Amino acid sequence: GVFLRIDGCGTGDDDEELRRLHNSGDHEDVESDHDYDEQEDEPNIVNAHVQELRTTKHPPGTQFLVSHDLTSVQTGDLTIHKGEIITLVEQRPDDWWLFRNAQTQQQGVVPINHIQLLSGQLPRRRAKPNTSVTTLVDAFKANNNIPAGFVASDLAPLTQLEEYQLWRALVPKMTDSNLAFADLYWHADTDHLQINDVTYKKIIVLKQCVKIPKVKGDQIRVLDRCVRVCLYDGFEIISNIHIVRAHIRNKVDDKVLTEDWHFSSNDLNSFVDEQPQLFIRANRSSSGQHLSLLFELSQWCQSTVTQEKCEIACGWSMVPIEDDKPPLITETKGFNELLHGGHTDEPNILLDPQYKILRSDGLSGKIDRLKRARIKFSIEIRDSDIDILFDSLPIQPVIVSMNILRTIGFFRSELAYQLHKRHHPTGLSTTPIDSIFLSTFFQTLQQPDLIYALRRVYRSRQRRFLKSSSSAQQQRELFIRTYETFIYPLLHYRQLPAYDFHDVPALNERRKLITDMIKRQLPARKTNPQDILSILLDPNLTDKWTPFTTDEICFTLEKYIHDFKTDVVA
Q: Which GO terms describe its biological process (predicted)?
């Protein structure tokens, strides 16, 4: 179960000896100085697991769960941490397979005794919660800290999977033949992306969550609150899982058993992860089932005893996206939906047994309803509207914050334009596109505070450099220059903490650093802007430098379209 690299490690004599052993088929155990070799406490089980991986053909795009930590030893290795999900790029015969980490967008080789197959093990509707999370939730229930209807979040672990992240939906969809794009075509005569109409186009605005049972006791502390939204077709989640931060406005009286959650004002200038106005776009389900909106409320909690953290679902609701009783006068309809307890596939679980509904009709029934937890939102119907901004999105089902629609539109337009410029008749050349913007945009999209900063700087520069009569191409070119000047360097700023939705102190630190970096690059009245290289190459940060790779400046579809047919393109 021990894998030794025979390319470029050790002394020359050592290398020769390892090559001799490898070529002669002599598989004696060779002493290794890697600490991970001693982690195999059950060699027979590990060897059987490795052998199963070796003998099975895994297509690119297959996802694996990291089972052991591993620090990069030499160039080309991928540093991994236990619990991370990595995506297979190439299955190699030497037991060191090529993987990509979607979070960091880094790529490198990993020994297969450090991974286990993930794809196919998690139901697409609900992921099996981590054992430690389940244990912690059960302990909270045993101590009466949370109601019986609170459970480990169903959607939180799914958000770690690529297929439920927004950037994955932005990868161009191929036709069945894999010889053309199904949703990405550039009209050179109009300098616009071809719009793709779909069946459903809705604008949803989250209003409030009311009567949410509070956690109790000194053993638990709530660190953060959020609502997740996705599209569900009766069999599986078919869209990305979108997350919106929620707040409680004032400290609630300890005698009050419930609390109300609020959202940021419906302002397009709000932070991306706090924007309560969402755009939903989808076609009818291929399964023939009616589509529904699935909401899950959750709280990021910490045990004050063990300091462990976990995400606890505290109510869910499912609403059909196709309304049988549409509004008569306006295109907007308000909803005030009851929240269920338990998991999303358990429809008859009360969130809190003390709020049982005893009556269903008349005034008494209405009073009973007001005692229960609910989520309030509105849906505006835009199905019949033709809008360049809305219809420039992909045909795949998506849920997007309203304040990043234009940003996504710029990305898709630039990608379509660059593919159109190629001499290949379908644009499917495997030659990488020389573009910092295209190659790093997906990485930036997973850091909403960078998208927020990009929008603000672009609007400022738009007022300064563009006229009202500026063409779409001029706007797009300014947007890309703004991105490459101000945002791309931030992706490599070593003092910037990693983005974590639930780590509010780290997010506040990130926002301060981002603001400071951008100010240092903006020209002042009496001083020139600071050279970005002098900032990034700070000699005090040499321990955090990483090698430059061409992936940072070159975009290729092969990296994202796993069944891309390289045998038919040039």
A: protein localization involved in establishment of planar polarity
Full residue range of the structural domain in which residue 540 is found: 432-559
Cα–Cα distances in Å, from 99 out to 63, 78, 318? 9, 8, 36
Give the residue-averaged pLDDT of 310-325. 90
Distance CA 125, CA 445 (A): 24
User: Does residue 569 sit within a domain?
Assistant: no
Collapse the DSSP code of 423 into the 3-class scheme (helix H, G, I; strand E, B; otherwise coil) and give the result.
coil
Q: Does 496 map to a domain? A: yes
CA distance 181 to 172: 6
DSSP assignment letter at 544: G
Q: What digits encode the pLDDT tens for the residues 382-401?
A: 877 667 777 888 889 999 99
Give the residue among 152, 208, 153 at the shortest CA–CA distance from 337. 208
Q: What is the DSSP letter of 32?
A: -
* Phi and psi at residue 481, to the nearest 5°: -60, -40
Residue type, 137: V
- The model's confidence at residue 63, banded by pLDDT at 50, 70 and 90, is confident
User: What tokens appear for 505 in the block?
Assistant: 């102190």
Alpha-carbon gap, residue 559 to 504, rounded angstroms: 32
Tell me the per-residue pLDDT of 507-546, one tens digit each, with 9 for 90 and over. 999 999 999 988 888 776 666 666 666 666 666 655 555 6
Is 318:293 a contact under the CB 8 Å cutoff?
yes
